Amino acid sequence: MAMETKERGYVRLPAFLERGFSDLRREVVARRRCSMCGTCAAFCDKIRIEDGEPGFIEDYDTVCGLCYTVCPRTFMPRAEIEQKIFGEVSIGNDVLGIYRACYEARTKKGDIREKGQDGGVVTSILAYALETHAIDCAVLTTANGDWRPRTEVARDYEALKEGAGTKYTLYPSVIGVREAQEEGCNAIAFVGLPCQIQGLRKAETANANQPYELRIDDVKLLIGLFCTENYNEELLDFVNEHVPLERVKKFDIKGKELLVYDDDGEVISFSLADLEGFVGDGCSVCTDFTAELADISVGSVGSAEGWSTVIARTERGDEMVRGASESGYIEVRAINAEGLELIKRLAMKKRKRGEEAGL
Ligand SMILES: Cc1cc2nc3c(=O)[nH]c(=O)nc-3n(C[C@H](O)[C@H](O)[C@H](O)COP(=O)(O)OP(=O)(O)OC[C@H]3O[C@@H](n4cnc5c(N)ncnc54)[C@H](O)[C@@H]3O)c2cc1C
Q1: Residue 344 φ/ψ, nearest 5 degrees
Q2: Whose CA is nearest to atom 12 of ligand 1?
Q3: Which end of the chain is more exposed for a tag (fewer CB within 10 A), N or C?
Q4: Contact predicate 113/123, CB 8 Å
Q5: How confident is the model at residue 160 (pLDDT cuts 50, 70, 90)?
Q6: Ligand 1 pocket residue status of 301, Cβ below 6 Å
Q7: CA 11, CA 84: separation in Å to the nearest integer?
Q8: CA-193 nearest atom, ligand 1
Q9: pLDDT (0 to 100) of residue 62
């Protein structure tokens, strides 16, 4: 990173100029480190994600280097990104990243409570942000009746509710940011996994007058989800052999089990140990449990049943959490010390696992 130069407040990364898609393919895809976040395809219209990996749609490579630069699995200029978005840099053992406040929270809206994964907080904060025109849409990962994920550009309360709930399936959701812009949105919220937040933050940080088709400045709010790991679509085929997916109401991971709730109120559980073969290849090198670069991070670990853990990181994120609370969208209370310790333990575990796998 010694060659980096500052330009108009942004960090210009040397790799941008030197590496192309063939390098990305060799260093990330071939080494099974791709997380399927979708950032490369969101920024470059010559890349498509097919059969679980990114590919160039034209038979040439360029030296543009955009895909290599925004990929969260190539290099991570963490300190530069933190400095830009938080105005400070975390220290090595600061395993939760930089934050202003950490709460337990849950929705106060009955209809969101029914659809939400945990406390329905993500959906409620987005509803507040839409109502106050802080955003004009939210890019969500939703699922149709058979649980195959897709992106949805949600512009109203009903569409936000449709997107609620966790889909434990890899999907290149960042491409939804491009879709939102194509639909004319310019104040976009994005909800996604730590790798997806990292990709978007890399783009934001490296935004030195480059000819992006995707206007990163239109992304106004990043809500990151806690994530231990994610699963490929074959998990859905496996579950379907035990319970038809159209009968599944909800998936959840509790402790060491995947729980599948069906429409009769039955719960079928699978040991996570038996599902290891379905874990995404690129998850093994990830070191980020709590989406440390998001404006707001949300997860279930650390909070009581029916509540979510909410980490407000940036000024904007903090404003949104407080605003949603003051306007009656969510209720918040201080997280207890035990909950916080548990999150730190899991974050440390993931960091170590990722660092070892990345060597
Ligand atoms: C793959 C995955 C793994 C997770 N692992 C953990 C974990 O180990 N520990 C933990 O505490 N929490 C984990 N979470 C987060 C947790 O499941 C809830 O998403 C979180 O607590 C928010 O709950 P909520 O009720 O506030 O969200 P809701 O109001 O229900 O909203 C959920 C939001 O998540 C988005 N979303 C759902 N699936 C995906 C997806 N595949 N990719 C991108 N966005 C998606 C939806 O668009 C929606 O906006 C994980 C989430 C995912 C998607």
Answers
A1: -65, -40
A2: 299
A3: C
A4: no
A5: very high
A6: yes
A7: 9
A8: 43
A9: 62
DSSP 208: S
Q: Are strands 149-154 and 137-143 parallel, antiparallel or unpaired?
A: antiparallel
CA atoms within 13 A on the CB side of 258: 25
Structure tokens at 201: 């933050």
Q: Which of 161, 160, 98, 141 is nearest to 295 (CA)?
A: 98
User: Measured in angstroms, how far is the CA atom of residue 30 from the centroid of ligand 1?
Assistant: 28
Mean pLDDT of all residues in 275-302: 97
**Tell me: the pLDDT tens digits for 175-216?**
999 999 999 999 999 999 999 999 999 999 875 555 566 888
In the numeric block, which tokens belong to residue 316? 């904007």
Contacts 24+ apart (CB under 8 A), 346-349: 346/228, 346/289, 346/301, 347/95, 347/96, 347/289, 347/290, 348/95, 349/289
Calculate the average pLDDT of the chain. Answer: 91
Q: Is 302 in the pocket of ligand 1 (CB under 6 A)?
A: no
How many other CB atoms are there within 10 angstroms of residue 114's CB atom? 11
